[in-house]
């Protein structure tokens, strides 16, 4: 944060509020520490308080949520969209470099290399929602993803099975709830993410017995709260 040319001004502007909210406690502590280190503020890390300009500013974790009952209802009503007996590992992300999508595909490739017993039994369904399509870095990421999917599928595909099903685009909320419900594993593995509501949506849709398993990165805000 100190690399920002206007880091002090940003902090001072935020401290003009009576209360500053962040997704999780870790982010609150980071903010409190920045105020102490950059501005020399007196702080109370235990109670998340910052003294600045003769005022005391409260800092609070205020995690964003989802309409839980809505997703449960969708999961109960959505028709089945995965017509397969294979185990499905599901990823749902914006196509963004912070989401670790390239790392995810390479990890799945490594799984098939090291554990060939999963071939024809497990597939990765990756839904990548287009994002910032006019930015070159995002165009390059899309090209890299397309090439990786093609290479991995070309390497492992059999007449009856493809290791990766790749959807580049948006899906309806009904379809999404069905994907969440019927997947054996939900992967939420960003390199860095503020909260990531996909993790919460996935859990809300687990109405089957046995339910699917969520794997969430510690670098997603949701990792602290779930």
From TrEMBL:
InterPro entries: Glyco_trans_20. One of its GO terms (cellular component) is cytosol. GO terms for biological process: trehalose biosynthetic process. GO terms for molecular function: alpha,alpha-trehalose-phosphate synthase (UDP-forming) activity; trehalose-phosphatase activity. It comes from the Eukaryota. This is Trehalose-6-phosphate synthase. It comes from Pseudonemophas versteegii. The lineage of its organism: Eukaryota, Metazoa, Ecdysozoa, Arthropoda, Hexapoda.
């Amino acid at each position: 944060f100190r690399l920002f040319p206007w880091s002090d001004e940003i902090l001072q502007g935020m401290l003009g509020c009576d209360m500053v909210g962040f997704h999780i406690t870790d982010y609150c502590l980071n903010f409190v520490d920045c105020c102490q280190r950059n501005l020399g503020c007196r702080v109370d890390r235990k109670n998340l308080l910052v003294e600045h300009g003769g005022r005391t500013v409260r800092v609070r974790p205020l995690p964003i949520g989802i309409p839980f009952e809505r997703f449960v209802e969708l999961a109960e009503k959505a028709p089945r969209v995965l017509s397969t007996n294979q185990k499905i590992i599901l990823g749902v992300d914006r196509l963004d470099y912070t989401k670790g999508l390239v790392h995810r595909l390479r990890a799945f490739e490594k799984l098939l290399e090291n554990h060939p017993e999963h071939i024809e039994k497990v597939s990765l369904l990756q839904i990548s929602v287009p994002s910032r399509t006019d930015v070159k870095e995002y165009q390059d990421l899309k090209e890299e993803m397309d090439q990786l999917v093609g290479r991995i599928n070309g390497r492992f595909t059999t007449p009856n099975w493809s290791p990766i099903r790749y959807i580049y685009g948006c899906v309806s909320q009904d379809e999404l709830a069905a994907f969440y419900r019927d997947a054996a594993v939900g992967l939420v593995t960003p390199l860095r993410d503020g909260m990531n509501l996909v993790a919460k949506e996935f859990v809300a849709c687990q109405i089957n017995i046995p339910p699917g398993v969520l794997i969430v990165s510690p670098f997603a805000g949701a990792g602290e709260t779930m």
